[in-house]
Amino acid sequence: MQKSLSFNQQAFNKNWHNLFHLPELPRTPTIEAANKDGYFFRKVIIITGASSGIGRAMALYFASKGARVVLAARNIVRLKEVRDIIKFNNGEALIVPTDVTKHRDCYYLIDKTLTVYGTINILINNAGISMRANFLDVNLDVLKRVMDTNFWGAVYCTKHALPHLIKSNGSLVAISSICGITPLPGRTGYAASKHALDGFIDTIRVEQLQSQLHVLSVHAGFTSSNIRNTALNRYGEEQKESLRNEDKMMSAETVAIAVAKAIKSQRRDIILTHEGKLISWLYKRIPTIADKLIYNEMAKEDSNS
After folding, report:
1. Which residues contact 251 (CB under 8 A, 6 or more apart)?
2. Which residues are annotated as catalytic?
3. Whose C-alpha in 15, 47, 161, 171 is 20 to 30 A from the C-alpha of 256?
4. In the chain, what are the domain boundaries?
5. What is the per-residue pLDDT across 42-78, written as a single tens digit (0 to 9) for each?
6. Cα separation of 224 and 259, whole Å?
7. In sequence order, what are the beta bridge partners of 124?
8. How far lies 221's CA from each of 61, 63, 134, 197, 235, in Å?
9. Is 120 strand, coil or helix?
10. Are 80 and 54 a contacting pair, CB within 8 Å?
């Protein structure tokens, strides 16, 4: 019979230092090990519209930095896909099915997050839909649907999250658009919703100057995502296809990294893409020229349709 091995404590105490010459076994770094000193590590981040596009890219990016990500959107199947990717990479994600046009859904999103995590560090109001139709032709219901999602969705979520963001010295983020600064022909409802969102977020920033709340407006340019595929036509139906060259647009992943950098550096607003920065500058200084440039650019869509 094989003798059992006994542990000789005295011998170990005498020779333990000789063990340091042994090579370490290779280890796969976990998200926690890689990011335990990072800015976003263990922060609770709520992202609306997290099932696709910029929201999905932000969810994956922040989770890779060790954040506890709360995924909110209507499409549960896609939310589960995002969650599964995060968990496969040892990240942490919570799904809260949310239709931001419904006040009760937004209340439940915040309440569920607090129940699970006890705090909120960052709220990213990202959920949005677009449209494509001249105001002369569009059904008014289309504008209402766009406003309900892009503006009121952010208002509902912010209303219930704000006290907790102030308490945690957190960040309130709104994913706006270049057309929150400039007009955009064929997108009257979308431009109006982003102008309203900018005014809402900017005013909260001023109201909270005496607190440590960070407020960020992100003015995204044309981004390669599915927002144009799901954009509403004049009848309120999804147009199903993009009339623009998606290959030349900024990727959703690039936007996600830019948002993370802006949060970390406590920026008040950012404008993305070179074209977006140029047209925003022109519109503030030479609006009549900017109007013509915007009109000519958007007229290309009609020639492609």
Report:
1. 57, 223, 224
2. 190
3. 161
4. 34-274
5. 999 999 999 999 999 999 999 999 999 999 999 999 9
6. 16
7. 47, 173
8. 20, 24, 20, 16, 25
9. coil
10. no
Query: How far is Cα 280 from Cα 122, in angstroms, rounded to an integer?
Result: 27
Q: List pLDDT tens digits, range 91-104.
A: 999 999 999 999 99
In CATH, the architecture of 34-274 is 3-Layer(aba) Sandwich (3.40)
Say if residue 159's pLDDT is above 50.
Answer: yes
**pLDDT tens digits, one per residue of 5-51:** 444 555 434 443 443 343 433 434 555 655 665 999 999 999 999 99
Contact predicate 201/165, CB 8 Å: no
Question: Is 263 within 8 Å of 214 (Cβ atoms)?
Answer: yes
Query: By percentage, how much of the chain surpasses pLDDT 90?
Result: 75
Which residue in this structure is represented by tokens 């009109």? 295
DSSP assigned state of 145: H
Under a CB-based contact definition with an 8 Å cutoff, are residues 212 and 169 in contact? yes
What secondary structure letter does DSSP report for 151? I
Rounded CA separation 240/256 (Å): 24
DSSP 28-89: PPPHHHHHTTSTTTT-EEEEETTTSHHHHHHHHHHHHTT-EEEEEES-HHHHHHHHHHHHHT
Task: Report which residue type is found at 132.
Answer: R
